[in-house]
Amino acid sequence: MKNTFGNNISLTIFGESHGNAIGCVLDGVPAGIKIDEERINKLLSLRRPSGSISTSRREADEYSFQSGVFNGFTTGTPICILIPNKDTRSKDYSEMSCIARPSHADYTAHIKYRGFEDYRGGGHFSGRITAALVAAGGILIPALEKKNIFIGSHIKSIGKVSDRSFENVRADIEKLADMSFAVLDEEKQTEMTNLILAAKNDGDSVGGVVETAVCGIEAGVGEPWFDTLEGLISHAVFSIPAVKGIEFGAGFAITEMRGSEANDSFYSETGRVSTETNNSGGINGGISNGADIIFRTAFKPTPTIAKEQKTINYVNNENAILSAAGRHDPCIVHRARIVVDCVTALVVADALTGKHGADWLAL
Amino acid sequence: MKNTFGNNISLTIFGESHGNAIGCVLDGVPAGIKIDEERINKLLSLRRPSGSISTSRREADEYSFQSGVFNGFTTGTPICILIPNKDTRSKDYSEMSCIARPSHADYTAHIKYRGFEDYRGGGHFSGRITAALVAAGGILIPALEKKNIFIGSHIKSIGKVSDRSFENVRADIEKLADMSFAVLDEEKQTEMTNLILAAKNDGDSVGGVVETAVCGIEAGVGEPWFDTLEGLISHAVFSIPAVKGIEFGAGFAITEMRGSEANDSFYSETGRVSTETNNSGGINGGISNGADIIFRTAFKPTPTIAKEQKTINYVNNENAILSAAGRHDPCIVHRARIVVDCVTALVVADALTGKHGADWLAL
Amino acid sequence: MKNTFGNNISLTIFGESHGNAIGCVLDGVPAGIKIDEERINKLLSLRRPSGSISTSRREADEYSFQSGVFNGFTTGTPICILIPNKDTRSKDYSEMSCIARPSHADYTAHIKYRGFEDYRGGGHFSGRITAALVAAGGILIPALEKKNIFIGSHIKSIGKVSDRSFENVRADIEKLADMSFAVLDEEKQTEMTNLILAAKNDGDSVGGVVETAVCGIEAGVGEPWFDTLEGLISHAVFSIPAVKGIEFGAGFAITEMRGSEANDSFYSETGRVSTETNNSGGINGGISNGADIIFRTAFKPTPTIAKEQKTINYVNNENAILSAAGRHDPCIVHRARIVVDCVTALVVADALTGKHGADWLAL
Amino acid sequence: MKNTFGNNISLTIFGESHGNAIGCVLDGVPAGIKIDEERINKLLSLRRPSGSISTSRREADEYSFQSGVFNGFTTGTPICILIPNKDTRSKDYSEMSCIARPSHADYTAHIKYRGFEDYRGGGHFSGRITAALVAAGGILIPALEKKNIFIGSHIKSIGKVSDRSFENVRADIEKLADMSFAVLDEEKQTEMTNLILAAKNDGDSVGGVVETAVCGIEAGVGEPWFDTLEGLISHAVFSIPAVKGIEFGAGFAITEMRGSEANDSFYSETGRVSTETNNSGGINGGISNGADIIFRTAFKPTPTIAKEQKTINYVNNENAILSAAGRHDPCIVHRARIVVDCVTALVVADALTGKHGADWLAL
């Protein structure tokens, strides 16, 4: 079950960048969740390339439900979401280039699929596939919000330019909801955008870090072995193209602290238990402790760049030079943050459904 | 299937720190793998606490096979490994302390298991449980080595003291195999040990980073969705107590590079494809590219410390002060590295078995 | 992962009888399998209602690949097959009838999905959904045939009229391949058809038994716990609407034999091991023994009948009388046999892929 | 995950007939279920051979909890149950017989495990392994009873001698609970026992049918695809050695009815929905309808018999004659019925836990 993820609520993803359609099957969602099409479109628009800092490929992302939705509500049976590919320039890909883009999946796909891969536009490895995840997230995120669970991400950094961290998490998430370039300190937007445009002008690309918060999860969700909240989230997040690292709470920085500094002291106020700090990112022993879940995801610079690169022709295995034509993103971090939200929603909805029962999300 | 991990080769873990025994069931291992008891004992000894930088609890880790091994070979049926708990001081735990150790799982376990948790010595959350993983790894690691796949980890850092990175990976792994304090630059051992002892003297603890390498994996292993090699490894690694982050290849640092710098150029030499750099950590699009797989795991400082800490009594939810008595590790990084090797072996053996068939590991 | 089945090759099914489309995602099929559209259409036509012994609903079953197929070959990534619903009479279902058809899933669906079910035409419970299974089978069955594994089913009985059993299994399967009413003893067709028509004339329905054979599977496939070949096949087969029983080899009749009669003696001929009888249906201890796998599936009479029936209104829970209008099948056995073949192909392809590796089916 | 079954509550089984121990890991059971050791022992005793109609091997079945139980209650973490093998006559098996018992798993195991199988006493294929299932059932069955869900089986037939069917299911289950030879019509016991003894005297064996009832399950449990209640139960039940068929409700006999006869009319009495008949065995569309779940399992005659049989030597593939020495059961039906109860309890507890949440069974 390679392309399927989740236990109680699960998602099966399919599609290639230049095939008929991309899509997914979202299963295990209980009957009776109202579909908010506006919200789905909003989320899709936040993932969609726009402006000069994204690829010039423009897809309307006109999703449709093939199943599982009736009279505006989920039916409890699997929801197939289909998003046709429209802005595909087939002539750009009339034949396989055979030139492996460095650090892209061209080569590994060719080895794995033995030459039968749909190589057009990155095929099944294209970031385009994440649109299906976002459409599914558009069902789960509002349903979680009705349960007072809120998920949001911001661009923590582009290159060396950093945004501030979450402070008032609930308010910060609200603020980020509609931003097409999601930063908490809005003054950073220009600086970051300039960095992206400079890379673009050089035929190059930049990466960055996305920071994600989940607030409102009760204590006691997750498992010690093997389905820790960190393990489940990381498993899902690493599927997003270009991710190379993930850290929770203080993350790698915690390794430079002493225990007395790193430990999050508990305190009780009118019977409610909280922690004074949140170096654990809301998770102890794999299980939520009631504090906000905080994690950061490292995105590498887009591997497809215009600059000339040394590489190989993977059909004849000879050395070659690549000058990539076509449409690329000089940076995908600002688009990817919404994808992180959506896979996080899948993990959170799944874990809570396991805890509270199959219909929980709809009740 | 919470405590079970893996698709073709899977591991089910069980046990509590002060229960009868800890252990695991390793399933899907093909018939005909010779059991190397010496190697299993060697690996167990590398995980076992020793010297002044570890807890004073001493367990012999006398494992036994309850099933799945016959005449010195695996039978192809599930292998139950049992390791009795012996050095348990029951009187230390005659009653629940009710005082939550900050950043430990005491509180989250109490919430999740509603007061029925085996609280003695951390119960199912204890690092002791990892001994079972190591015993299982003692079957898989030598079997992988016969397939020319080698796995090894070193202590990349303790606090701010860093070891050098992998250079000649194959030789480095060999060097690390028998080291009880695994550093590549042996001069760092004293510095790191001093750091640990200083923390111990202060009733405190330190954390660090473990760097792991897998060499010898062919290109083409892994899946784009959702079972990327990164996703599978991270899912397993986050189960190891105290892990707060994981990064592959250049990891978080790659977010500060441009694409032209980050991309690993391919080149071909007598038909063999390699990369000039390895910022990808051997993985493109979730799939191995034939280069060494490299990742780093962040371990927080041991949360159990002797220093006084503010916390709560989780039974009456009142604020409390904790002065932890008992035996603790001032650092677990040097012990944990062998556990990282073992869960990595599980993921790698599982993925390759899926690719090459059920008996591959034994042929 | 409710609507997903299979480990290495898996199928996710979706769709409702009167929704946009039905379909499935077939995952884990290796790259490089040639798509035989003619064969898929052939199989779909064998499942499709036709003539006077089936419902008058006529669907063209115009399937399309949304993903996973490129240049006429599988790509190795998930294959989404979509079959639009066209011949739906929406006006027939403008409002929920609220009258539970006895022994149909109307009532259980209403309870499970709390009133949000797509009730039109049986929704997700409709036999129509099996068309998607058949399309998927149209990829797997010819691929298995290239491996010399042949699957075929015949109508063992309709009511009390029985066909002969398999004799020369390989030849029998070939004979059945193109038959729209698949009986081995063709003289039984008229008798069976008359039985169906008589029931139809009475506004009633009949059931029957489908007998399935798989020939060409090597010995050694399957697991003792829990994934016996019998267990896997039965798990899949019970998903087909109207199935109430399954038996392997001599099945229930074996309970009336003594061991000396029931046991299948092995014998060896020029080194090849066979059995003199096949009361085991080709499976010992859950594992194939090299003989033909033989099993029978019991299909109940179609629950939707024209005759007046006592039942309840499941909205107000009052007693009611049902006179079902609309289009129904007086018998589905002759159509269902092809669905049994297809789910069997899924189980067999999955098990062999686990044994021989991910690319086996394409090599 | 071959030897693991279940989604929310899962069981991993291990052990060989003459190894150190057999056992299982029961995972997903919520914290706080009181362990009733007497009940576990009772169930184990009902499965244990006794009297002249069973094998003379006598095992005390002294199970112990290695984990997951603390202070008499489940802890919520995996429960490892270990049952040592004691009455093993190693000398009987000092070397592999190489003679395949017809219709036993000797041959298929030898092929599958390539000669490394633990052949002693049937190894992992031995019915002895089911003792571990029964111990696990001893936790689940009383927990389900507290939820007013009762499971019980009787010997429906031995050879051609039949017991009456369930009538007042709840009372019948109670009656069967303590019977070592479980028949509803006690007059049949002598007749059945005589049949068994006659076969024994002839060095032969007999089979039979077990009929199982589950009462108290609410309507709405199960899935249409693929996890129908029938599919899940059959998947589990076929793991029990010697099972060759399963049927629900009227089963195969329903194929000879017309729809108007087979359909179970619903009726409502003071708001409670029931069915007038139960030909569906309590399941419509894979989902419970609130009626008793009824199914029958066909057990073949024990394949190990004393009578001389033609077979092969599976090492040199030459024809051979087998005269089986050793201890065997002339019939296992009366012992197996308790195993059917226990795997049914696993499926039912798992499905209801998925529906109602992780802690449901303990609340």
Structure commentary:
4 copies of one chain form a homotetramer. By secondary structure, chain A is an alpha+beta fold. The first copy, chain A, has helices at 37-47, 106-113, 130-146, 169-176, 188-201, 229-237, 259-262, 333-356, and strands at 4-5, 10-15, 21-27, 64-65, 69-70, 73-74, 79-84, 150-158, 161-162, 208-215, 243-248, 266-269, 272-275, 283-284, 287-288, 293-299, 309-313, 318-322. The first copy, chain A, has a 5-stranded antiparallel sheet with strand order 1-2-3-7-4, with helices on one face. In chain A, strands 9-8-10-16-11 form a 5-stranded antiparallel sheet. In chain A, α1 (37-47) crosses α8 and α3 packs across α8. The mean pLDDT of chain A is 95. Chains in contact: A-B, A-C, A-D, B-C, B-D, C-D. The A-D interface holds A 7-8, 77, 224, 354-360 and D 7-8, 77, 224, 354-360. β11 (243-248) of chain A pairs antiparallel with β11 of chain B.
Which helices and strands occur, and which strands form pairs?
Four copies of one chain form a homotetramer.
Chain A: E1 4-5, E2 10-15, E3 21-27, H1 37-47, E4 64-65, E5 69-70, E6 73-74, E7 79-84, H2 106-113, H3 130-146, E8 150-158, E9 161-162, H4 169-176, H5 188-201, E10 208-215, H6 229-237, E11 243-248, H7 259-262, E12 266-269, E13 272-275, E14 283-284, E15 287-288, E16 293-299, E17 309-313, E18 318-322, H8 333-356
Antiparallel strand pairs in A: 1-2, 2-3, 3-7, 4-7, 5-6, 8-9, 8-10, 10-16, 11-16, 12-13, 14-15, 17-18
Helix pairs in contact in A: 1-3, 1-8, 3-8, 6-8
